[in-house]
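User:
I would dearly like some help making sense of a protein record. Take your time, and here it is.
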Amino acid sequence: MWNDKKSKEERMENKEQGISILIPAYNEELVIKNCIDAVFNLEYSNYETIIINDGSSDNTLQILRTYLDLEVTERTKSNQLSHKIIHNVLQSKKYPNIYVIDKENGGKADSLNAGIEYAHNEILISIDADSMLKKDSLNHINNEFQDESVIAAGGTVHIAQGIKKSKGKILPNFGIKPLIRCQVLQYLDSFFIRKITQTKFGSMIVIAGAFGAFRKSILLEIDGYRSTVGEDMDITLKLQKYINKSTKKLRLLYIPEAICYTECPANLKGLYKQRLRWQRAFIDCVVEYWDLLFKGFNKIVSYYFLLDSFIIGTLTAFSTIFIALDMAIQGINTYMLVILFMITTLIAISQDILCLTVSAHYGFVYSKVDYVKIILFLPFEVLIYRPLGMVFTIIGTISYFFNDHHWGSADRIGEFSIS
């Protein structure tokens, strides 16, 4: 485990702390049962699950009523965070540690605030309704939160379509559609390279909304989630602001061994919607927190946010497109184009080899055949997916200033389960 000198056996003997799992759900009829089934299989006893039905217009609530055998119950709340009107708090007759909050639609941030209000444990885990927790995930969260300096942490998110089940084991699988392959590689880089590095330098700016863990007392102190489409980045930046003001040494962590699986967009339309939403979320945080750089955040967080996320992640996309357009207008220098492609491919190969090596260290090991497929696939990723990602970044940045920023429903398939 990250920054833990104890042996694995010693860590697993830690006393179970109470954990509340918050699952905001808006029109999740296709995936909500898979999410719940994974919760049933957790190797942890001291936890409760709170599903927040955010005014779904599909059959999400009806499925929950049937699957869980719900009845109306009374439950105390903190009365510190605002949220939309709660219609009912329901409890499962079959599984007494599962609750459902039925509320008016207010967005994901609003739903999480409602969940925080009704949660009865200090450690809160937020996951998406299409996320499926690995059975030992809460144990790894519990181990790290024995340290009082840890106020929040993120786990690893793997793409559900990129795994297979064999003899009771969950194994990586690269025999999937090209569009999903691209996303698998991006997730591996995002978690096993970027988040490990960010933890090392204390520069975490996003705890993924698909799987994050927090201390309830701290979330209440910072007034919970702000109503925004990018609630995961926003709450992480609020925590960084809190850390910067605190006189105590507090930390945000990434826990590689704490794993969940989530469904990724299976077609170009779904990917387009998702990436535009992500980019709008980032720009919203740029607008909201720009004045806090080097004042409200420490220098490392500020530099990372400014250089890596804003300049390299966003502004570079605009400059690259302009260069490509200029080359098209002025005439393409074939020699220069080949050189640029070779350099980009070499960097991509080096980057992927690094993240595959690190992910293998944490048990995410492909077959030899799949490793060959990955290497052969890299030119496609460089030529098609990366330029496509820059286009999404540009469109998402521009559209932020013209579109509304509500929490929309994602396209789900619901065919992938780890149970």
In short: The first helix runs from residue 8 to 12.
